[in-house]
Structures are given as C-alpha cells and as structure tokens.
Design a protein that fits this description.
four-stranded mixed β-sheet, 128 residues, 36% strand, alpha/beta, 2 helices, single chain
Length: 128
Amino acid sequence: MLKGFHHVAVICSDYKKSKAFYTEVLGFTIVSENYRQERDSYKLDLVLEDGSQIELFSFPEPPERPSRPEAAGLRHLAFKVVDIEATILALNEQGVSTEPVRVDEYTGNKFTFFQDPDGLPLELYEVT
C-alpha cells in the first residue's frame, strides 16, 4: 500500500536562515519557492538526489516546540550517509555542531545528532 516517504514538512522561524541551512549546508536542491501573500508565508520545496523532499514553511510567529526531543509527535528526522565522519567534518566546517558519534546497539550502525536553526533534532545515520 505505502511506497515510502514523499516529504517531511518543517516550519521555521527565520525563513532566510533556514533556507540557507537546508540548501547551502545540507545540500538540498530547490524544486519550487512560493510566497503565499494571504498567509504571509513561504513554502519552499526541497529535494535530495534520491528524491527525498522537505517542505519548508514560514509562518508569522510560529509557536516554539514544547521540548526536545521527547515531545509528542515527530521525534527527529534522520538522513542516510555513507561516511559519517566525513559528513560531520563538512558540517563542523560550516559551523554546525554535532553530538559525539554513537553506535546503534541493534544494528551496529554509527549515528549522531545535530540541529537545524530552530533546534529541530536532525540525525545522521551511516549506512553501508
């Protein structure tokens, strides 16, 4: 029935800052960018090489996330990487802090967390 994920929607508090983070730091490509005047809101469609997409929204005065990451709802967004150390180095060189690398006790795969400009928890998960 389900074929996979098409996109994840993210609401940001600073559109220009988040747009730069997802495109310039994480390497997403812009599919389309629309300003919705009636909502005073941007909708930015972003895509990775494998077709994974993020819809980045801006709204005036969005409420903050209740807590990180144990609030009900989406816990975090995980990105597949082939070389976690190289990816961490690339992020760190652009001023993005990452947590220490851990190993998944069930799969043996390496992973770490970092945050987007609004503190949304993001994960790097190494797959071979």
